Fold this sequence. Notes:
With 507 residues, the chain is α+β, with helices and mostly antiparallel strands. The chain folds into three domains: 5-92, no CATH class; 99-368, Transferase(Phosphotransferase), domain 1 (Orthogonal Bundle), CATH 1.10.510.10; 378-500, no CATH class. The protein is built from 18 helices and 20 strands. The chain has helices at residues 54-67, 99-103, 148-156, 192-197, 203-222, 277-282, 289-303, 309-313, 325-334, 345-353, 388-395, 398-406, 408-415, 421-432, 437-448, 463-467, 470-478, 482-493, and strands at residues 5-6, 13-14, 28-29, 69-73, 88-92, 106-108, 113-115, 118-127, 130-140, 164-173, 176-184, 189-191, 225-227, 235-238, 243-245, 251-253, 259-260, 284-285, 378-380, 383-385. Helix 11 (388-395) crosses helix 15, helix 13 (408-415) packs antiparallel against helix 14 and helix 17 crosses helix 18. The longest helix has 20 residues, at 203-222. The chain is elongated, with a radius of gyration of 37 Å.
Amino acid sequence: MSQLLRCPLCGSGFTDEDYCPQHGTLLVPDPDHSDGDTAMAGVTATGKTTPEEAPRERTLADFMSRLGLRRISYQTGAGDAEPHEPQDAVAELPDPLPAAMQEDGWRIDGPVRSGDGLDEWTVARDQADGPPLSGHYRRFRTGALTPDTLYRRLAANPAPHLARVWGYGTVDVRGARADFELTALPGGGRTLVHWCADSTASEQRAWHLLPRLVELLRVLAGEGLQPLTLEPAQLVLTDDDDLWLSTAGALGQGTTTADYHPEFERSALLPRRWTAPELVQQNLLGTNAAIFSLGQILAQAAWGQPCAHAEVQIGAVPFQALSDARLAHVLMGCLWPRPAERWALQDLIQAVCADTIAAMPAIPPWESLAPGASSTAFSLAGTAFWRLEKLLATAVMPNHWREATTRIGAILDWAEGTAWVGQAQLMRSALARGCSTEWVLTALAQTVLPSVPTTWRGLDLSDAEASRSLAGLAQRALRRHEADMETIRELFEADLRGAFVPVAPPS
Length: 507
C-alpha cells in the first residue's frame, strides 16, 4: 500500500506523487499515517541532502523546468532561527514581459501556449475609462519575419484589419535571442480555428469567408502590407463579422518581383500546409503568395482540411467534388503551385464580383500538372489538350475523325513530348512503311485507350458517315446502283497492299 504524503504548504495528500503538482514542493509523510518518523526523506538533521536524494533532485529539476520554476535558497543571520520551510523552496521565474511593457501597464493574464517555435501569453492592461485592454504577447524563437522599419511604422500608425502593435523588439531567452511583439485587437471575436470547429464544412462556409478574405488582403495591400502567409490561427472573425489579422510577425512590403529570403528556410512562422510552395521550397517571395494561403483556407472551409502540397503539385485536387463550379474555379485560380500563373489579388476581386464563370479570370491548365502530361497543349476541334489519352478520346469521334487523320503527323510530333513517346515513334515508323493515317490513328488509340471501339460500327457513326463508308458502298452496289458497282469493281482490281502493310509488334 502506498504511503500517504502531504504538501507542507497546502496540506493536500497524495499517494503517487513526490512533489506537489501545484506548488512544486517536496511532499512529506502524513503524521497520522506514518510510523513516527516525521523527518523528510533524504534530508538529515543538519539540513544536508543524503546521497539517496540525488535521483529526486534530478526529477525535481525536470519538474520545475517544465513548469517554468526556479529554486531559491534562504539565507539567515547569525541569531536568526532556521526557516520552517524546506531549505530548497521554489519561486516563479521573473515576469516574461520585457520591462518596457511592464512599465506601460501590461501584465500576464493567462498561461503560456508554446509550440512550433512560438510562445504566446494573453496579456491585459487596465484602462481608466473602460474594461481592461486584452492583447497577446508572442515570442518568436526563430525570429520574426517582419522588418524593424515596418514594425516601427505599424506601432506609430496602426493599419486597418490588423491588430495594433503596442510593442516589439528582442529579448534574451536562456541565452538565446528571440524576437517579440505585443498586439491587441480593438474588439472581441474568435479565431478562425474556433469558428470552423463550431460549423460544418460546406461550400456555403467557403463562400462566407471568400469576400472577407479578399477584403482583408485588399485593405492590407492599400497600406503597402503583404502577408507572407495566412492560417486560421492568425485570423480573427470579429463581432462585426470582419476578418482581422492578429499578428504582425510575418508581413512584407509590397513587391513587384520575386525576392530570395534565406530567413524563410527554418522559420516557424511559415507553416508548410498553409504557405505557398515557392516560400517553403525555394525561399522566394512573390506578389501573390498569400493568394495560395487564401485558397487553402477556402479548402479547409469547404472540405474540412487544406490540400496537401503533393496533391497540388500533380494536379490531384478533387475540384470536381464541388457542386458549385464558380467555387471550383476560384480554388483552381488560387491553389496553382507556380506563382507566375496563379491568380493575383485583382483577379480575386474580379472573381468575387462575377456572377458567372465566363466573367471570371481564366484559370491555369491543371491537366498539365498530371504525370505524363505534355509541357505544351495540342488544339483539336477548338479544345486544348495536355494528355494524349484525352486527345485520342476526342480524335476518334466521327465528327473529329477527318481532322485527326489529316493532322496525324502533328499529333505524333506532340505525343513525343508525353509519356507515350515510344508509341509515337512506332506509329511514325508505320507511316513511313506505307500504313494509312486511319490505321495509325486507330492503332495508337487502341494502345493508349484499350476501351476504344475497334470497328466503324463500334464508333457509333451517324447516317451520313455510314453512307460514306465501305459498308454503305457495298449495300448500294447490291441494290445494282451502276456507279457504286463500278467503284466496287475498281476497288477489287486495285492494288491496296501498300495501305495494309503489317506492323511488327514492339520488341
